[in-house]
Write a structure and sequence with these properties.
By secondary structure, the chain is mostly beta strands. It is built from 1 helix and 4 strands. It has a two-stranded antiparallel sheet. Strands 2-3 form a two-stranded antiparallel sheet.
């Protein structure tokens, strides 16, 4: 007579705990911005300790005008753009 394995499998445990694997059919949201206009993001730490970053109408990266970037210096000051 064959004995049945009574141990629950990994997926059963995950389902009981409420952890479900992400379905391949779930939609993913992708946001893009071509920076042809100022996105209006908030700058933190811009102008402090020689930092200079944000939106510019230049085209240094090539293509049409409008890009983000600048100079971020190494320091203990918090700085971000987004």
């Amino acid at each position: 007579m064959l004995q049945r394995n009574n141990r629950p499998n990994f997926l059963s445990i995950m389902a009981i705990l409420g952890f479900y694997p992400i379905s391949v059919t779930q939609a993913q949201i992708v946001r893009t911005n071509n920076f042809d206009t100022n996105p209006g993001w908030t700058t933190v730490g811009n102008g402090v300790n020689n930092n200079n970053f944000g939106y510019q109408t230049s085209s240094f990266a090539g293509g049409t005008s409008g890009e983000i970037g600048g100079r971020f210096t190494r320091s203990d000051f918090v700085r971000s753009y987004g």
